[in-house]
Each structure stands twice: as C-alpha cells, then as structure tokens.
Amino acid sequence: MKPKVILDKVGLWGTTAVAGMALILSMAPTTAKAVTIPTEVTELGKNTYEKYCSACHGEEGDGNGPVARSMLPKPRNFTRGAYKFRTTPSGSLPTDEDIFRTISYGIPNSTMIPWDILSEEERASVIPVLKSFSEAFEYRDPEPPVAVGLEVRPTERTIAEGKKIYEEKLECWKCHGVEGRGNGPSADEQEDDFGFPIKPFDFTTGKFKGGNSSTDIYLRFTTGLNGTPMPSFAKELTDEERWYLTHYVMSLVQPEESKKNKECK
Amino acid sequence: MQKLGLRLGLCLSAAMVFTSLAWANDQALKKEPPPDLYEGMPDWYRAVYKDNVGLSEGAGPFKDYFKPQMLDMYWQPNRHYEPMKNLDHSVFIEKGRRDLCVTCHEEATPGIVQDWRESAHKFPKRTPYLSSRTSEIEKHTGRVLDEVHCFDCHADTEKKQIRMPTGEVCGECHRKQFEDFLREREMGRPNHIQSWEANTIVPWYAEAARRGYLYGQHGCDMCHSGAEKCDVCHTRHKFSAAEGRQPEACITCHMGPDHPDAESYGESKHGVIYKQQEEHYDFTKPLAEVRPGKDYRTPTCQYCHMYEKHGRFIHNPVMKGIWRMGTIPPKNLEYTSSLKDYPYGIKIIGDKIDIYSEENIAKRSYWLEVCAKCHSDRFADTYLKSLDEFMFQAHTLADQAQKIVEDLIADGVLYPDASNRDPYPLSDGIEKMLSADFLGEPVYNAFKTLKGKFPVVGPILGVYGMFLQMQDNPSAIENMYNRLWFWYKLQGYKGTAHAQQDVSWWWGQAPMMMEFTRIQAEAARLRREAGIEQAAVEQAAMK
After folding, report:
1. Which of A175, B42, B109, B288 lies deepest, with the highest CB count within 10 Å?
2. Closest by CA position to B224, among listed B10, B383, B68, B410
3. Cβ within 8 Å, pair B87-A55
C-alpha cells in the first residue's frame, strides 16, 4: 500500500471517529445528574441570585425586579410555584432538574438567556433560592416525572394525523393560528395566571421555549405549561396522538425563519 | 526537476514568511495612538470634561456648583457614564460570551438589534464598496472585520464593564472621520466638538442648576451632547453614512429661533426641490462622488457645509464658516456702543471676525466652488456679498440697540439698577474658578470688586437673560435687546444665507425693526420716569 493511501484511510477514520464522538456528546441531554443541588439556601445561592437574577425576577422573586417593567414577556414570578417547563404532570411543582434545565437552557424568544455562563455549581445553588420564594414547596413535593412513551417515527402519516388534531380535535389554531404563527383569532385575548397578556407560541420560529427536541415538545403537550392558558393534553390525547401533534408542529417550522434566528447568534 | 521544484517552493515559502513578518512589523510600527477627543487641549479640559466622575459632580470649570442630570451619562459618557448597578454585565465580558448580547437584547430591545442586523457593522463586506472601506480599516487596525459586534463597541475589556461608546471608540476604526471631526477645534466655537464645553462653560448653566432649574436645561443638553457622540447624525444602531448625508440628519438641532436652518433650507428652493424629488437623490454615494444635477438636483446641508475646498470634502461642517452662526460681531464696522471693545479682553471668547481677512476671502472662494456646481460665479458671488451686506446692516442695528441700553446704564436710569438686583449669574463662582488668564484683567477685576453687581449686555455674555431670570435681572429692555440680536438677527441671517426670502424678512429684518421700536419706547419710558422722579426729588429739596 502506498503511504498516501494509508494517510487517506487514517484521515477518513480519524475524522469519522471525531465526528462520531462529537455527535454523541451533542446528543447527550442536559441533566443535573452530575451536579449536587443543595437542599437549603446557601450564601453562594443568595449571592448568585442577587447578582444575576434579581434585576429581572426581583429580590423577593415576585418577577418585579428593577428592569422587569419594560420586559415582555414579564420575568417569571416565583411566588406561586408555577413553572412552565417541567417533566412533571400538569399542576405539579417542577423537579430540581427541571429548574436546572431551564436555567441552563434559557427560554428562547425571551430575555432569559442560557445561563451556562455560570458554573454548574452556581446554577444549582440558585434552585433552593427560587423555591424559597413560594410556600408551595414547603407543603408539597413535585410529583414524579411523566412517562415518555416510545417515540413514533415521524412520517407523512403522523404529520397528517397531527394536523387533524391541530385543526379539528383540539382546535389549536384558535390561539396558535392556522399556519402556526401564534396569530389565531383568540391570540390577543390570552392572559397568564398573573394577569399579563401572553402570546401563543409561533411555531415557525423554530425556537421552542422548552427545548427543540421532539421529546421536549411532546412533554409540553403532556405536562402543559403551568401558569399559562396552555393546558396538558395527557387526558385528551393518547400517547401516540401527542407524538403526531409533536411531528405536526415541528413541520410548521419555516427553515428560513429558523435560519435567520441562527444567523443572529 | 522535482527536487528543484521542492527547493524553489521552500525558498518561496520562506520568503513569504519573512515578508509577512516584515509586514507585521511594519504594521506594528504604524500603530497609531488611540484617538483622543481632547488631544492638544490644556490639561484642565481633560480634568473637567473627560475624567469620569459618574454623577458625583458636574462638568466644566463650574463643575463643583452642580450635579448633572442622570441623563447626562448618556449625553456625555466619558465624563458621566456609570454602568448599571442592578444588572451586572461584567460576567459576559469576562467570559467573552459575545453570543448572549443578541440572545437577550433581541427580546429586551429588539429595535436596536434589528438596526444592527441591517447595518454595515453586521455585514462589513456586504458590497464591493463596503468591502474596500472595511479592508482599509482592517489594515490600520490590524484586525479582521467580518462582523462588528456589540462587544467591539460596548465592552470595556480593561475594566470588564459595559461602556457607552464615544467618538473615540468609533475613531478606533473610523480614524479619518474622527480626525476630521477633531479639526473643528481649529475654527473655535461655535462648533460641534466643543458643544458640551459651550453648554457648561457658561456661568448661567450652573447658576440655573443651583437655583433649581437643572432639568429646565434638558433642551440644551440634548443638542449639546453632539460633542462626544457620532450617533447624533448617524443614529444608533445602524450608524448609516447615507442617513448622515440626508438633510434631516441635521434638523433635530438645527431649527428654531436661534438657528432656523431646517426652516430656512427646508422652505428654500433648494429644500423644496429636495422634498419634491427626494427619490432622485442618491445618498449612498460619498459626497465626493456625488454628481450635481444627477445624484442631487439641489444641494443638501452636508453637500455645501462639508465641502472643504478644491473638490475635497471633510467630515465636519464648520471649516468654511465665515459668519460663525451670526453671533460674533464683524471687525469691519464702526461701532457706537461698547461693541467696539468686543470681546472686552475676555480670552475664552474668540475675537471679532474680519470678514475680509485673507483666510475668509479664501473660504469665500471655496463657497463659490460649491455654488459653481450650478450657479455662475458672478451670481453666487453677488448673492453671498448681499449676505455680507445684510449682516453688516443687522450688526449695525444691533449696535444701535446696544447703545440705547448702555446709555441708560451710563445715565443711571436702568431700573432696577444693578446694585438693587441679583448679580450676574454665578459671580461668586466666576471669581473663584476663573482668573485673569481666562477673563482678562478688566473683566476679572470687575467681578472681583463689584461681585457681579453690574449689567452685562450684548454678545456673548449678555445672552444669559434668555436662559435664566433672576430677581430683576435681566430687566425687560435687556431681554428685548437679546431677542433682537440673538433671535431676529440670526433668523434674518439664516433666511438670507439659505435663500429663504420669507424667513429673511418676516422672521429676521421685520421683527428686528419691531423689537427696535420696543427698545426705543422702553428706553423713553425709563428716561421719562427717571425724569419725573428726579423732578420730584428736586422739588422736595426746594421746599
């Protein structure tokens, strides 16, 4: 074998191995398993909250920090224990891991940036502080996370089934619009539990607030978004139907919109 | 043959390495010092205008007499900017997370992010023209510029803080434009680069502040913030050169009673044709490349005022100024009032203007070069000479009015007289903070001995009456005179200079005359009352 050919082979396998590793790493979900989340409020937690969170969420966690007044959507008010992005059933408190994930991932389309800029320890330290703002955590524990059923493979059929649910069974379009742009006829009437107007999600942006994976979106249909008009469909829809709806709303993403969003980063 | 090729290749690569090293060294040698707004100015300027004191004290020689408005941190960031305390942004700078600026601000302040996305900063190589300009900047900054990002202007990487960019920050890349702008100083005030100095060097600013009228001066601060910032003309966050070339870029400040530029240009034939045929003006072209008649049918503010000479344009609009906004008296008149002694030995005010100095005759020829793009030399010269004559007449009228007021003072009939009213603004501060070096011996001594208990009328120090009213100071007739010389004379000047006939007459010459009537009548009334009073005193003495 000529040396050049060997080099080519090494190059090819080397690249494949590196790319494979990168792919595996990028697929790894963000979890807090390796991080210890303190059970009590610590000095680190208080300081981190004060320095990085309180300007928006307020010193008392009421979502009324000094820069909150000009923000839309308004920063979360933690005093009711209502958390949107959870793995737990509708109405339940979130798990610590849920909160950690939202802090780390941020909430696209809002001023809540991904706070991965802070160390994992700092992010974890904030969790007991957030929980301390609501009495709910004193009286209740979060319910166990919902079971995520085996994902159905997305096909034209599952998307078509999802469309039927979107348009006929649940009439999602009334809020989210026929094309999924968040501009349905009832869109302007929506309010959250705190009395603020809330905009139905625009699926075309491709920036799903609770995460872009199909499991993330499936979870939103299963758990609902506490504190908002978006309910859970765990009862109305079968497990499979929730996957169909997931595939349909993912099909509403406009590649150009999501490209534009990426380009800004 | 193969070996030869290899050797040749090695030699060539070695040569390239050395060449690029040499080039890098050359670049290092050429590295310019950072741009400095106060370059060449005395140290005291830097100490009272540039050194950052946050909001703890004011600016200028009377900085100790007032604290600034909080807004002043945005108008004068070098001196007054304080980073947000309740939302610490330093972590983003420390960790170099440039991506997070847009992630947050496209929601928090979407308008400015969109502006930036459409700007040349976002795509510095979008067109061949931009690309060539960017490559020049890359050469002199030694940086590759594929995107100019929030961090590049807003991150103070030394202090690890957010900063509010000033012209100095812009000047790091836009060196030529910044240096051109700095050259306004050569002309002296009024200019843009010293407009914050002009705002706060006047004693009535601090006096108004300490009398509780700080926020009343909001309007002053808004325009006079043009000293440090480029976004006055090239607004945030597009910073568009084309926008800065449009007449509208000037008019937020250049309007109103003291300089109705917007009104006079806007309603002149030049301005009206611009409005009628706006779509035929190509503002994407640099001024030097504009073909008169094709790209612009009539001139814009920028086209005339930024034309320097001999076909060259300069990035500031004051270099050809002759009449200097019409406030400074010309040397070429015989004055009857104290204007003959202007500027009274005061060294921080420029001398009278010699309209026919060698420099001004040269400047006039540069004006004619601009006019000649469309007008005959004779027409343009005749027009501008008529402007000079208008100004001589207006200054003569002002001189007569000033003489009336000064005669009242000399005859002791100005009522209430200076000893029975509040002193000149901030007289205590003037005596303490300024010296004979600034004010000249006579004026400084007057403040020292009379403590400001003397009347001051006319340009420039007498204009305080339009900014501040103290107890009986100024009196009605003094402000009538202020209106005559500072409003109507300047309105007539702008109307005539910008070829707007109605502004020239009805906002200028006519009200000057009518104000002169009022001054004469008020003087007569004061003299009559003083005469009656004197007669009564004499009558009482005879009894």
Report:
1. A175
2. B68
3. yes
Q: For residue B497, which of B287, B264, B305, B312 has the smallest C-alpha distance?
A: B264
Closest CA to B261 of B321, B347, B202, B319: B321
Closest CA relative to residue B442, chosen from B346, B532, B334, B337: B346
Averaged pLDDT, B513-529: 98
Neighbours of A146 (CB within 10 A): 18
CA angle B24, B27, B32 (to 5 degrees): 150
Segments in chain A below pLDDT 70:
1-34, 257-265
pLDDT tier for residue B31 given thresholds of 50, 70 and 90: low
The helices-and-strands tally (H runs, E runs) of chain A is 11, 0
| DSSP assignment of A238-251 | -HHHHHHHHHHHHH
**CA gap A201, A15 in Å, rounded:** 39
User: A64 in contact with B at a CB cutoff of 8 Å?
Assistant: no
Asked if the model's pLDDT at residue B136 lies above 80, the reply is: yes
**Tell me: the pLDDT tens digits for A144-164?**
999 998 999 999 999 999 999
Cβ B86–A265 below 8 Å, yes or no? no
Tracing tokens 């001999």 back to the chain, one arrives at: B310
Partners of residue B107 in chain A, C-beta under 8 Å: 71, 109-111
Q: Inspect the interface and report whether the beta carbons of B104 and A113 lie closer than 8 Å.
A: yes
What is the reported pLDDT for B348? 86
- The string of DSSP codes covering A138-189 is HH--PPPPPP-PPPPPP-HHHHHHHHHIIIIIS-THHHH-TTSSS--TTGGG
Q: A56 CB near a chain B CB, below 8 Å?
A: yes
Is B216 in a helix, a strand, or coil?
helix
Report the pLDDT averaged over residues B66-95. Answer: 94
Amino acid identity, residue B248? E
What are the tens digits of pLDDT across the range B379-403? 999 999 999 999 999 999 999 999 9
Q: Which residue of B has its CA nearest to A118?
A: B91
Q: How far apart are CA B236 and CA B234, in angstroms?
A: 7
Do the Cβ atoms of A66 and A55 come closer than 8 Å?
A: yes
Contacts of A59 in chain B (CB under 8 A): none
In angstroms, the Cα distances linking B168 to A51, B78, B325, B470 are 31, 10, 27, 39
Instruction: Tell me which amino acid residue B188 is.
Output: G
Q: Each residue of B305-322: pLDDT tens digit?
A: 999 999 999 999 999 999
Distance CA A36, CA A44 (A): 14
DSSP for residue A33: T
Q: CB-CB: which of B84, B100, B108 is closest to A117?
A: B100
DSSP letter for each residue of B376-407: -HHHHHHHHHHHHHHHHHHHHHHHHHHHHHHH
Q: CA B494, B496, B501, B507 torsion: positive or negative?
A: positive
Amino acid symbol at A100: F
Q: How would you label A211-246 residue by residue, b for 16+ Cβ within 10 Å and e otherwise?
A: beebebbbbbbbbbbbbbebbbbbeebeeebbbbbb
What's the pTM value of the predicted model, to 2 decimals?
Answer: 0.85
Coil, helix or strand at residue B54: coil
CB within 8 Å: A264 and B117: yes
| Average predicted confidence (pLDDT) for chain B | 93
pLDDT band for position B125 (50/70/90)? very high
- With an 8 Å Cβ cutoff, are B91 and A110 in contact? no
Number of A–B residue contacts, CB under 8 Å? 41
In the 8-state DSSP scheme, what is residue A95?
P
Query: For an interface test with A, which of B100, B101, B109, B112 has the most A Cβ atoms less than 10 Å from its Cβ?
Result: B100
* Partner residue opposite A67 with nearest CB, options B86, B95, B99: B86
Q: How far apart are CA B85 and CA B130, in angstroms?
A: 38
- A152 CB near a chain B CB, below 8 Å? no
B85 touches chain A (CB under 8 A): no
